[in-house]
Amino acid sequence: xxxPSAILFDLDDTLIHGYANRAAAWQAHVEGYxxxxxxxxxxxxxxxxxxxxxxxxxxxxxxxxxRHDLRAVRxxxxxxxxxxxxxxxxxxxxxxxxxxxxxRRQGHSLLPDAMTVLxxxxxxxxxxxxxxxxxxxxxxxxxxxxxxxxxFDCIAISEEVGFAKPDPAIFHHALAALGVSAVDTRMxxxxxxxxxxxxxxxxxxxVWLNADHAxxxxxxxxxxxxxxxxxxxxxxxxx
Length: 239
Description:
Shape: elongated
CATH class of the largest domain: Alpha Beta
Helix content: 40-55%
Strand order of the largest sheet: 5-4-1-6-7-8
Number of strands: 8
CATH architecture of the largest domain: 3-Layer(aba) Sandwich
CATH superfamily of the largest domain: HAD superfamily/HAD-like
């Protein structure tokens, strides 16, 4: 079978370690504020923040304002959780939110096989695109920080494009920029809704990067599943 003409990659938690295990990250982070939060239990506060965050990110893009400013989003989410719990401490709310944002940024790292896989795809003769949700400043900073820019023929960031995954429009934007068809393009990503369901709705073949060996969501069936980045090259060479 012929190789596809192009591969589209997600960025966060596909090529770089970014935002996986959000609930566990909030739990660990808020535990550091147990004394300041007393008498409220840190695990209850963390659960409330995660509940707000989960509902925020599940909402349709057109129902959310300023989703691209993660620092502002986290401030708002923590403040909402505090209000629901009856915690009246705006300064502590901001401190918890901002220190979490700083910790997340410091924790970003290029996944070990990312460069090898991107260069391997290039050697196979395919065009490479990046399709990522997020704000321009934050996503461009990551791309520059890890020296990824020169490896992509197209970079589609949701704030710049005006559409966010899973909206098919952001995938169509990337396809047009690359000059390729949907049926001849593969999308690689870790998020079942944004990267798999969204790509399939745009007519692409979707490959789910399931490094955590999670269970697929009802109603979403990836075209292919790999457990690590090198699995993508194996899939391409044996398809």
